[in-house]
Amino acid sequence: MHRIFQHDLELFGRVSRILGLGLPAPVKITVLPTDLTETSPVERRVDTLFRLDNPEHGPFILAIEAQGRKDPSKPASWAYYTSYVWTKYRIPTALMVVCQDHATAAWAQQPVASGPPQLPTLTLKPLVVGPHNMPVITDPDEARADLALAALSAITHAADPDIGAILKTLSTALRGVPEDIADPIIEFTAQGLGKRPAKQIWRKLVAVDLSFYKSYISEEIRDEGRAQGRAQGRAEALLLVLEQRGIDVPEHIRERITDCNDPETLGRWLARSVTAPTAEDVVADE
């Protein structure tokens, strides 16, 4: 049933015209190897994979991917994940993509077919979760009722102009919540916000509103605060030494000293300030 197409490479074109597919005639046909076995190990990992069992509708598998930006190579990878999982487990497989901005969400939810328009064959159409369909939660009671959903809402609206209010709502909702419940929400939110400016807002809220927690991000913020305190103390001591020695400190040198947040650098400058003839010599070669 198939080898006759190898025998006559143009047979498919004639068959397609009979079927009314309207495919343009190829200018070249190349026979490819039929062995699809992987010749070398290739690591492919989906971000999260679940099996969901429902007594009424039967089981299905859900693959979840986080997508921060448009990536033309992703649809082929997603198609591979879903078809591989379907083949491996013999269970219907669905794909959900989580995005943080409207442009990426609109791109991700466009159906992508593996074949030409006349023969789509395998069409990928993921369920997309993002700022276009996730609720904006600004009521602490609503956030407290479902902390995970509130965290996901904050993450997916990371680029929203009102992200400060959204994050403030979440931090307020977390007050009084047991640490074993609050800590994962704090961390997932920080990680989910990535490198966006919203992460700095969240860090400050955690430091102020949730200072009693001992989560990783909380300890990180406190360590930074202690380091800044040490730096400020050394900067003040350095300027005091120079003042007591009667050494003039130009404004640009003073700003350099007070703006420095590295305790080790300030420690070296402080040691120099005892003997350096000028303020410029204190910060030289730095």
UniProtKB/TrEMBL annotation:
Protein species of origin: Streptomyces humidus
Protein name: Uncharacterized protein
Source taxon at top rank: Bacteria
